[in-house]
Amino acid sequence: MKALIGVTSIPRQVRTGFEAVLPHETIPEMYLDLVSWAGAIPVILPVHADFEPDAVERLDGVLLTGGGDVDPAAYQQERAPATDGVDRRRDRFELDLARAAASRDVPVLAICRGMQVLNVALGGTLVQDISAEVPGAAAHWVPERWNHAVHPVRFEPGSLLARVLGEEITVNSLHHQALGQLGDGLAAAGWSPDGLVEAVEMPGRHFLVGIQWHPECLGSGHASFRLFQSFADAAREVAA
Ligand SMILES: [Mn+2]
Predict the structure, then answer these.
(1) 112 an active-site residue?
(2) From residue 123, how far is each of 50, 83, 180 by CA, in Å?
(3) How far apart are CA 226 and CA 38, in angstroms?
(4) CA distance 52 to 61
(5) Which residues contact 69 (CB under 8 A, 6 or more apart)?
(6) Where residue 129 sits, what CATH number does that domain have?
(7) How far is the CA of 1 from the centre of ligand 1 (A)?
(8) CA end-to-end distance (rounded Å), the chain
(9) Domain residues for 215?
(10) Closest CA to 177 of 34, 72, 28, 38
(11) 16, 49, 81, 183: which has the highest count of C-beta atoms within 10 A?
(12) Angle of helix 225-239 relative to helix 29-37, nearest 10 degrees?
């Protein structure tokens, strides 16, 4: 049987056919395509729904998607001027979801904001703005090259990420925040040349992986599609 993978939605204001602007739960089809191409069935998880931790066990995997910044209050920091796009309702849903999935060993793939949510959910912190807080860091907010590889990521030998992706790949970069202190149980598994953590995993879990880049923008031809395949394989094992 194919695995069911929950994909968290992105709340937005959308103009309807009758010209009213109303809140919608949206999801770029690219995420759904990669889940489907990897052999699993994506189901969209609306983030404004009431959350029940045990319901996570009815999913075989959880994909935490990209988006705006996590409220710094969630990691006990004052909000820096560059912190943008905070949605506390989405934060609450995804932080609860990440904790529930991690504690039950439901496979998780966490992308960009998703990795930051995962880290905060497990007690970690974030760098609120790379250019303000990390002198000498490379450009990591490169939206004009959203579907191109712009910097390398080197993986920790022996890590799950290295087993799936090899020693090094080049990735796109659409983030202005980064991981600070790592959350409980997370291990850094990939770095950009300037030393920022671009990938984490939790040893001892089926598949609990966070990555800072956006594989869904790079399509099935990019190396990181293999990560979706490993994720779907792990979810299928849970489903069986
Ligand atoms: Mn980057």
Answers:
(1) yes
(2) 22, 19, 11
(3) 8
(4) 16
(5) 83, 84, 85, 86, 113, 116, 126, 128, 177
(6) 3.40.50.880
(7) 36
(8) 7
(9) 4-12+21-239
(10) 72
(11) 183
(12) 60
Residue 169: predicted pLDDT: 98
pLDDT at residue 50 tops 90: no
Per the structure, the count of domains in the chain is 1
53 alpha carbon to ligand 1 midpoint, in Å? 31
Q: Is the pLDDT of residue 239 over 90?
A: no
Tens of pLDDT, residues 65-82: 999 999 999 999 999 999
> Token match 């089809």: residue?
29
40 close to 5: Cβ distance less than 8 angstroms: yes
Kindly state the tokens that stand for 118.
């995962």
Q: What is the pLDDT of residues 84-141, one digit of tens each?
A: 999 999 999 999 999 999 999 999 999 999 999 999 999 999 999 999 999 999 999 9
Could you read off the pLDDT of 92-108 as tens digits, one per residue?
999 999 999 999 999 99
HSE-CB of 25 using CA atoms within 13 angstroms: 13
Dihedral pair phi/psi, residue 226, rounded to 5°: -60, -30
Active-site choice (94, 140, 216, 222)? 216
176 as an active site residue: the answer is no
**Band of pLDDT at residue 1, cut at 50, 70 and 90:** confident
Cα 75-81-86 angle, rounded to 5 deg: 55
**140 counts as catalytic:** no
